[in-house]
Amino acid sequence: MAGPSTSGAMEKTTVLQRLRDKLRRKHKDHGNGDGLSNKQVGNKHAAKESRRVEIGWLHFQMGEFHQVKTKNGGGTRHLTCQKNVKIEELMKTGKELFFPHGLSPKGHAEKFIFEIRDFSQNIVSPECTVCQLYDQTKLRMLRLYICTTEIHTICPQRDPSSDSSYDFHPDEQTLEKLSKVRKKCRKSKGNKHKKTDHVHIQLSTPNQDNGTNITCQPIASQVLDIQNHETSSSQSDAENMGDLNEESDPFLDCAIHASLEDSEVQFGPFVDDKDSDLDSTVPVTFNAHELSDQDFKDSILSDQPIESVASSSRNDCLPPGPSEQAANVRESQYVKIRRVMVIKDLLEIFMDCKVLNLALRMEFANEKALDDDGVSRDVYTAFWEEFLEHCEGEDERVPRLRPDYSEREWQAIGRIWVKGYMDHGLIPVRLSPAFILACSHGVTAVDEELLMSSFMKYLSAGERSAVEKALLGNMDENDDEELLDLFSRMGSHHLPPKENMHAVIQIMAHKVILQESKFIIDCFSSSITSVQLNLPTKQSIVELYESKKPTNKKVACMIQTSKEFLNQQEQMAFNYLQRYVKNAAPRKLETFLRFCTGSTVMCKDKIDLTFNALSGLSRRPVAHTCAAVLELPYTYNSYPEFRTEFDNVLSGDCFAMDIL
């Protein structure tokens, strides 16, 4: 028995040895004597000499870069290039793609400053190669943007430390016009009321007396006169004014350049004596006639409304908001909203997509307040509070199709979301974040974690408890009935097996949050995709929601006194307010925040607390939502007294701005 077994083993060993020898000889014939394959090991793309690159177009407007869509000559272009190609070569290719023959829907290429940026909007060095960028970013697909900025939008900066520059290179026709304008400005020195056609300023709101527009006298010549008083000029200087090589005042050039562009400076209505008692929601008195020459000149050179200059003068202690930064380059429009018809009135305004490029100033009908962001925040908050009442869900809600809303209405609601977020940092936190992520990045961007989280908050407390127990597999008889009711409402009339429970609930969540609202998501996406640069990932949207949700601790930390030292009565009132905020229920906390700032979410960094000596029937807290200032009486005798009166204020019609 041992003989045959040993013989068979030897034959098997011999066969294996022959195979090894044959493979070794084969490798030697191919010049690989060590027996290793010459195939590439690892990522096969690393051995390729070319890589794919996506190029988009970002255009600077309204204070930030916006992606240009395909229908406007932009879109995403897909290229295949060598790995050692430098970025400056891709810049030339991008110019040829988006500016064929030097032209584009935005204008001629000579009117723009070009640069190239990565997906994070960071400037990329022109000497960097495609291979180096792939190594740095570790992306599967490299995406770059050709960024353009119009030359005439860059104005000279008075700050010598600024690195901004002003490029003004007119052609011969413009040069001749520039010379004539300069000479005309020199001759009109001292005549500030002479009619010229340099800058035309027109009120955007009709006069309340006769219903006609008010046209103010041009004020560019006044700015030019200020410059003339600062520097002396001789007759020879005036004759050589047309020469661009001579040394001239950059602010004078900017003002003249603004006149050549036929720009209009829009600003809000003047308030006559009969309306002088309106509450501007900012507890600071201001006289427009006290504007300094420098402030007046700044208004003209930056195309900023006089109203905005006044606002900045009185709010120097406040950090500039997003709407204040954008007001320098956007036209103002004043609208009146009825509080009881806030949804209908706001939808009519946002039917036009051009409203996203305007600086809106709002006011409530029959309410005495001027908008310095506080009224606008309250308008958006009132809209979302009423709109969410018609949506489905509990802690988080999802809009549902309505027979009275067509595609235009849903698109307008999407614009309202974008406008509130871009101008004031205001979003409806009760609107499902999974729904917003689907609107901005597509349905496929919503992962299981965010979907299930939104679905749980969509359910009521009882349904949520039943679903959580079903997922854990420890349901009782009462939970079965609760879960069966939920499944019946969702379209299923029997419970699935326990092993399939998780998959079925996930399908149900996808149906409720995403599938049933797919038409609304498509309508929203036409507007919300414009904020992709601000919210590029799912994590950024989740963090945005977390930062905007108010908590007792966050709101309590926002309250800061305007005085460094408080007396005993003021310190007692401050302690009462802190205690009240820390113990407030979530809905009452949102009401308090809206009472102070005009919004139920975190839109301001702080709430300034001041004190007054009101007592008796006139004792009440007074809020100024524009600057987030709360005037608090210090005459309370106990915390229960304070709590009762503050509850009465918040439970009443506390949002109507009718305090004179």
Fold and architecture overview:
The chain is α/β, with parallel strands linked by helices and 660 residues long. Strands 1, 2, 3, 6 and 7 form a five-stranded mixed beta sheet that branches. Helices cover 43% and strands 13% of the residues. The longest helix is centred in the N-terminal third of the chain and has 28 residues, at 2-29. The chain is globular, with a radius of gyration of 33 Å. The model is unreliable at 32-41, 154-170, 188-252 and 254-328 (pLDDT under 50). α13 (407-424) crosses α19. It has 24 helices and 18 strands.
Describe what is shown at a glance.
The chain is of the alpha/beta class. The protein is 43% helix and 13% strand. Strand 13 (392-393) and strand 14 (397-398) form a beta hairpin.
Biggest β-sheet description:
5 strands, mixed
The chain-level structural class is alpha/beta
> Hey, roughly how much beta strand do the residues contain?
5-15%
Radius of gyration: 33 Å
Could you report the average pLDDT, rounded to the nearest whole number? 75
Q: How large is the count of helical segments?
A: 24
Q: How many runs of DSSP E, i.e. beta strands?
A: 18
Q: In angstroms, what separates the terminal alpha carbons?
A: 116 Å
Question: What is the 3D shape?
Answer: globular
pLDDT < 50 runs, ≥5 residues: 32-41, 154-170, 188-252, 254-328
The proportion of residues forming helix, as a percent range, comes to: 40-55%
